[in-house]
């Protein structure tokens, strides 16, 4: 009887170890394939929608960063909107920060091409995203810095709108050349 109990205990232990090993191997495979997709995106290679459809927030964040670098802002914003409430608190903060960066970069491009109304709306959305990121993590310095940049961008745009309405032709200054007290420090 004791031999039979030992025999079943050994086989039961072996089965449990085998299940844990298979589960660990599957987890390792998933992590390795996710890392491969992220590395592919970081190298500037696009991935298909099927590869990112039901992915982890980290992969969608990397894909959104890739899309932003290619100036495909609407697609990047769609990816970031999918993951804005997913993952850990840190991931939610980072996704809101990156959404703000997407809006701010697009606003700066529009401001440079003198599309001030559209740029103003996007800068306001960027400020909102940075504030949401700071609500989740008040010590996130990059979000604080970029919020200040977005806040300084809006008054400058208002001044350009007033100059357009002013009938007296004056020498127009470039948008960034006249920003007083531009913040220094973090990128």
Can you walk me through this structure?
The protein is mainly α and 187 residues long. It has a domain at 84-187. The protein is built from seven helices and no strands. It has helices at residues 2-42, 49-52, 57-69, 73-83, 89-112, 116-136, 141-165. Helix 1 (2-42) packs parallel to helix 3 (57-69) and helix 6 runs antiparallel to helix 7. It starts with a helix and ends in a 22-residue tail after the last helix. The mean pLDDT is 78.
Helix-strand blueprint:
Blueprint: H1 2-42, H2 49-52, H3 57-69, H4 73-83, H5 89-112, H6 116-136, H7 141-165
Helix pairs in contact: 1-3, 3-4, 3-5, 4-5, 5-6, 5-7, 6-7
Strand content: under 5%
Main β-sheet description: none
Give the low-confidence spans.
none
Tally of individual helices: 7
**What's the shape?**
elongated
Query: Order of SSEs, N→C?
Result: HHHHHHH
Regarding quaternary structure, what we see is: single chain
Determine the N-to-C terminus distance.
72 Å
Secondary-structure content class: mainly alpha
Task: Please give the number of β-strands.
Answer: 0
Overall pLDDT = 78
> Radius of gyration, Cα only, in angstroms?
25 Å
- Give the % helix: over 70%
Short description:
The chain is built from seven helices and no strands.
List keywords for this structure.
187 residues; mainly alpha; 74% helix; MxaK protein
